[in-house]
């Protein structure tokens, strides 16, 4: 049954069927032509499906069975921190007092929501070592851009609007240079050295009086801790630049090292990663930004403030603010889940999270090291990057290995990233997976390494057990079909 | 430590350390320089048990006045609508909500197909050729449309109607500053965009004109005329629309829009104190390759079976990197799913019926206010919203309404200085005749 084509909802439609129950109309009816200007009454109805409630439930249940989530199985997708999404979070976010309140209600009627946001901000200040946090950005990339806009405003306020260069390592997340571009900066790439860390000499070479900021992930996308972080911060600060922390990898260092103590001036976090979002199939996220004191005046408006009497209000009187980055106050529902998670873990729990995440990653790395190339052989943090170049010589690409993993019920690692590793496989197990799960996955990886030597075809032609085999992506891009169009019978 | 989310046991830990070849977990952190090492524990509250935490958070939630216990006439972009119960059942399927972006299409066909269906429904409602997989929200989606227009036309000025949601305009201004684009506000007249003023502002530097339809005051703008004027000046015409209203309004795609954006919140998404919502972005085939965010396309597998993939990835920020005009990476997939389920449940008939109910009920409220002696300054068509002039500060009236369990309208004086003592009253299909009459009576009593 799973292998059958799943019809589009439009193909299940039959004229006259309904799936809704609207309120009874209890006011006088009008002809829309009387109420709307001429030419503004829709003539052709939008072709939405006509199906019953059971049709809908069966359709989406069938779709869900054609989808792999963390609850379906192991999901070691590097840099994405696919940890377990606690169920209490879902219940709390759906409490009527959180789900059914309007963002523009009088502040006196939403003090509970504001208290939760304030407490979350306070916890994130402590976790990052920053001085203030805004919860407004919707996602990681949105947070990156928000922080860069603040850095730009800071330099302009100091009469240094000429600072237009943002330095990004060659191993950076792809969003870093894109965020810099849309904040009005040019990007300069700094090279990695042979240990996989930022090359300090190259950093010294690229900085100058036009440096606005350095964007850095620590640990970096290879899962390696930038040991020279204080020197790097010093190099940037000495020329008047700011140091920005991409918090995508915070799961690696909680209770071990705080961005604020490493010399960073601002940080974005991905609450949908480290703080159990969930990922939702690609969103929604939440990307709070933390800053040191000298950037506080530039935070987006409004800023949530605690009054002397213990109540809360939104402060709009921020003359140096970069303005609004999003309507209202951010993705509240995701922030509620993150807060619930932090309160479920407590200080001991968050420390254990990082320790176990790092232990799991190192364990897997050592188990797989004999079978795959390990370009940077040292303790990793929460993730590590293998290279499939040994297998490539036998005709099996990393893409093939990823597809073969699907046959065993696993989501593959992040592949071909970071860009500075040939045939890269970036593996992040997270702390919520058991040793049994890690072992079973490693056993399969080892089996695939052996298949590559003995029977490469089975890997090259994978997957064999999924509802569809490899899809023709070239065709999809060459003549794009982005919507259903009814075929007249 | 033992915790229900952490399966590590002491035995596991011992075996794993042996395999790694270290004595302790601490050794794995030896690369963190002593000077930056955090010692001890975070100063945050101690962990709570599941039941104790739930109790505490329920108490916190109950401090808020929600629309279960209150009757709400507050809209201003976010509305208290009928949410088919089935929506939450579908989005609670954890195969959907615990998945990541569908980068591995063979095991993500469910999500990909659901998004493909979402794209189709949005394209249908807006009358556009295509729609993307969603954006953060209506405000950032509108801002991205403005940035696309500036990049596409290589012009550096966008004209923004004063009748667009004020918070959306704020977001547009922030984005525009980042890309050095000038934003000029087009003034309003009688609650709609002032077309004469627009004519005098349009010039050969205008990248785009941005309007809202229906606008922030609930008025139906003459987008046909505005679109023609925009195109005469060779700018792009961008319309921000409540997609529910498009159930009965002529879609912007039929009236010359180049890009239609908005928020699908009216379709099954709770108010949730400001988010997450579901921005949408619809456009023409001509602009397809410039669309920000993700797109799902149909294709076939090796055996010729129909399937879906993320496509036109070359546009995406992670490839274009420093040449990007947008940096959006995630989308609002789960909310796009929610909106899809709601649009499916409503279907072809229901979306028209629900849209009409909103118009008819808003008209009933308008007549009731006028009959009670209130001035409703903006005449014409109304969707969801009417502006009501009051004799007393709106905040005072709203405080009185709260005592009666009513959440009053938005205080327009907060953002429009010329509209002090004007309330923006939102009426949806959920407001009964009796509730509307009670609102008018209570406001009348305090307004005297």
TrEMBL record, chain A:
Its cofactor is pyridoxal 5'-phosphate. Residues 354-454 form the Glycine dehydrogenase C-terminal domain. It is an enzyme of class 1 (oxidoreductase). One of its GO terms (molecular function) is glycine binding. The keyword Oxidoreductase applies. GO terms for biological process: glycine decarboxylation via glycine cleavage system. GO terms for cellular component: cytosol; glycine cleavage complex. CDD domains: GDC-P. The modification N6-(pyridoxal phosphate)lysine is found at residue 273. Pfam families: GcvP2_C, GDC-P. The keyword Oxidoreductase applies. Belongs to the GcvP family. C-terminal subunit subfamily. The glycine cleavage system catalyzes the degradation of glycine. The P protein binds the alpha-amino group of glycine through its pyridoxal phosphate cofactor; CO(2) is released and the remaining methylamine moiety is then transferred to the lipoamide cofactor of the H protein. This is Probable glycine dehydrogenase (decarboxylating) subunit 2. It comes from Ureibacillus xyleni.
UniProtKB/TrEMBL annotation, chain B:
SUPFAM superfamilies: PLP-dependent transferases. Residues 3-441 form the Glycine cleavage system P-protein N-terminal domain. Keywords: Oxidoreductase. One of its GO terms (biological process) is glycine decarboxylation via glycine cleavage system. GO terms for molecular function: glycine dehydrogenase (decarboxylating) activity. It catalyses: N(6)-[(R)-lipoyl]-L-lysyl-[glycine-cleavage complex H protein] + glycine + H(+) = N(6)-[(R)-S(8)-aminomethyldihydrolipoyl]-L-lysyl-[glycine-cleavage complex H protein] + CO2. It holds the Pfam family GDC-P. Its EC number is 1.4.4.2. The glycine cleavage system catalyzes the degradation of glycine. The P protein binds the alpha-amino group of glycine through its pyridoxal phosphate cofactor; CO(2) is released and the remaining methylamine moiety is then transferred to the lipoamide cofactor of the H protein. The glycine cleavage system is composed of four proteins: P, T, L and H. In this organism, the P 'protein' is a heterodimer of two subunits. PANTHER family: GLYCINE CLEAVAGE SYSTEM P-PROTEIN, GLYCINE DEHYDROGENASE (DECARBOXYLATING). Belongs to the GcvP family. N-terminal subunit subfamily. This is Probable glycine dehydrogenase (decarboxylating) subunit 1. It comes from Ureibacillus xyleni. The gene is gcvPA.
């Amino acid at each position: 049954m799973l292998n059958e084509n799943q019809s589009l909802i439009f193909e299940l439609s039959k004229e006259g069927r309904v799936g809704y129950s609207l309120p009874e109309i209890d006011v006088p009816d009008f002809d829309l032509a009387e109420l709307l200007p001429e030419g503004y009454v829709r003539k052709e109805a939008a072709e939405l499906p006509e199906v019953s409630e059971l049709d809908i439930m069966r359709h989406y249940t069938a779709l869900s069975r054609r989808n792999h989530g963390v609850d379906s199985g192991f999901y070691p997708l590097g840099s994405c921190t696919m940890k377990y999404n606690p169920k209490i979070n879902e219940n709390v976010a759906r409490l009527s007092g959180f789900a059914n309140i309007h963002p523009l209600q009088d502040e006196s009627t939403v003090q509970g929501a504001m208290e939760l946001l304030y407490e979350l901000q306070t916890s994130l200040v402590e976790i990052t070592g920053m001085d203030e946090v805004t919860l407004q950005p919707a996602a990681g990339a949105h947070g990156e851009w928000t922080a860069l806009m603040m850095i730009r405003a800071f330099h302009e306020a100091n009469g240094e609007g000429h600072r237009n260069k943002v330095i990004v390592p060659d191993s950076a997340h792809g969003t870093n240079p894109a965020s810099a571009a849309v904040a009005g900066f040019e990007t300069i790439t700094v090279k990695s050295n042979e240990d996989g860390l930022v090359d300090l000499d190259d950093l010294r070479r690229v900085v100058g009086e036009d440096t606005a900021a350095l964007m850095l992930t620590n640990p970096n996308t290879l899962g390696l801790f930038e040991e020279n972080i204080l020197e790097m911060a010093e190099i940037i600060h000495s020329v008047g630049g700011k140091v920005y922390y991409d918090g995508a990898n915070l799961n690696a260092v909680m209770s071990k090292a705080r961005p604020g103590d490493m010399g960073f001036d601002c940080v974005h976090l991905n609450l949908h990663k480290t703080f159990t979002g969930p990922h939702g199939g690609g969103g929604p996220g939440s990307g709070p930004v933390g800053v040191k004191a000298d950037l506080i005046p530039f935070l987006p408006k409004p800023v949530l403030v605690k009054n002397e009497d213990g109540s809360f209000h939104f402060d709009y009187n921020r003359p140096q603010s970069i303005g609004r980055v999003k309507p209202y106050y951010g993705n509240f529902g995701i922030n509620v889940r993150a807060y619930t998670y932090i309160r479920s873990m407590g200080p001991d729990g968050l420390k254990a999270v990082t320790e176990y995440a790092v232990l799991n990653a190192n364990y897997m790395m050592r188990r797989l090291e004999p079978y795959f190339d390990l370009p940077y052989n040292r303790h990793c943090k929460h993730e590590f990057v293998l290279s499939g170049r040994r297998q490539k010589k036998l005709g099996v690409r990393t893409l093939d290995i990823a597809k073969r993993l699907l046959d065993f019920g696993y989501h593959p690692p992040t592949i071909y990233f970071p860009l500075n590793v040939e045939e890269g496989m970036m593996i992040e197990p997270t702390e919520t997976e058991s040793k049994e799960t890690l072992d079973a996955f490693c056993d399969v990886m080892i089996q695939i390494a052996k298949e590559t030597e003995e029977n490469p075809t089975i890997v090259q032609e994978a997957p064999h057990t999924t509802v569809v085999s490899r899809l023709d992506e070239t065709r999809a891009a060459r003549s794009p079909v982005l919507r259903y169009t009814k075929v007249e019978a | 430590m033992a915790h229900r989310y952490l399966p590590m046991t002491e035995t596991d830990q011992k075996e794993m350390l042996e395999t790694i070849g270290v004595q302790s977990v601490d050794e794995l952190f030896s690369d963190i320089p002593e000077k930056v090492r955090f010692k001890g524990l975070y100063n945050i509250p101690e962990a709570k048990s599941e039941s104790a935490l739930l109790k505490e958070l329920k108490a916190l939630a109950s401090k808020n006045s929600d629309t279960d216990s209150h009757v709400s006439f507050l809209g201003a972009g976010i509305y208290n609508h009928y949410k088919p119960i089935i929506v939450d059942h579908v989005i609670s399927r954890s195969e959907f909500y615990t998945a990541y972006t569908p980068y591995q299409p063979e095991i993500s066909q469910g999500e990909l197909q659901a998004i493909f269906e979402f794209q189709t429904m949005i394209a249908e409602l807006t009358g556009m050729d295509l729609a993307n997989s969603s954006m953060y929200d209506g405000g950032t989606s509108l801002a991205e449309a403005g940035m696309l227009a500036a990049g596409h036309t290589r012009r550096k000025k966008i004209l923004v109607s004063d009748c667009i949601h004020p918070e959306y305009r704020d977001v547009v201004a922030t984005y525009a500053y980042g890309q050095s684009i000038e934003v000029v506000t087009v003034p309003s007249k009688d609650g709609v965009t002032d077309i004469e003023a627009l004519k005098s502002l349009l010039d050969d530097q205008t990248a785009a004109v941005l309007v809202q339809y229906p606008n922030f005051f609930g008025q139906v703008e003459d987008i046909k005329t505005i679109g023609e004027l925009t195109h005469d000046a060779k700018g792009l015409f961008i319309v921000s629309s409540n997609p529910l209203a498009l159930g009965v309004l002529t879609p912007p795609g039929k009236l010359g829009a180049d890009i239609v954006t908005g928020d699908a919140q009216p379709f099954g998404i709770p108010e949730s104190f400001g988010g997450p919502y579901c921005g949408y972005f619809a456009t023409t085939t001509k602009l397809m390759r410039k669309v920000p965010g993700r797109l799902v396309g149909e294709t076939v597998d090796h055996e010729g079976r129909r399937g879906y993939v993320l496509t036109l990835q070359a546009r995406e920020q992670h490839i274009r990197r420093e040449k990007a005009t947008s940096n959006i990476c995630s989308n609002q997939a789960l909310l796009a799913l929610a909106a899809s389920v709601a649009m499916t449940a409503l279907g072809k008939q229901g979306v028209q019926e629900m849209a009409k109910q909103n118009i008819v009920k808003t008209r009933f409220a308008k007549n009731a206010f006028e009959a009670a002696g209130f001035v409703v300054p903006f005449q014409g068509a109304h969707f969801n919203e009417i502006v009501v002039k009051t004799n007393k500060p709106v905040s005072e009236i709203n405080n009185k309404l709260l005592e009666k369990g009513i959440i009053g309208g938005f205080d327009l004086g907060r953002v429009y200085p010329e509209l002090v003592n004007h309330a923006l009253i939102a009426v949806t299909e959920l407001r009964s005749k009796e509730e509307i009459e009670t609102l008018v009576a209570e406001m009348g009593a305090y307004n005297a």
